[in-house]
Amino acid sequence: MGEVPRVKTSPRRDWIRLTAPLTAFGLTTMTMGMIANRHTGGYPAPPFIRLFFSDTIHLKAWLTTGAGVLALFQIVSAARVFELFHWAPSGRFWGRAHRISGYLAILLTLPVAYHCIFLLGFSTESMRVAIHSFLGSALYGAFVGKMIVVRSRRFPGWALPVAGALLFACLIGLWLTSALYLFRSTGITL
User: In Å, what is the CA distance from 40 to each residue of 5, 131, 134, 181, 190?
Assistant: First the structure.
């Protein structure tokens, strides 16, 4: 399958073209942060969905963990699509699996984001919470920016891996500042 062919352009044109995904990233991140800042509900938040978990916080931690596992699969499948790994059989499976796992990872974050944005809000009460609030806002900005890059062949070849890495870093950073923090404080429970 290999790398997607990209249009050869000058470096100056590459930077001009990158203004679209960078602007989308910035505007989406700021919008998410401003919306969350207007809804400062505080902790503990009112009850939300629990499914079979003991409380909403554990539901959010496990949904984020699921998204994190899918994000790790994203790295492996992207490496296979770009033929960096040769131990797995090649084929169209990897491209499809990469897209589906990416959409599922973002889908798992939606109930978490709703709870965080509208019931907890943006907070800077501690360094961990401030980083978590910023990364939560940046996650969807990174997603929008990556979707712009992935839908066009007019960006330089390095833009897609950088956009994917930014999205991965936001998601793993969110997991580290939320789910891992919860699991370390209360233990791994449902």
Answer: 46, 16, 14, 21, 27
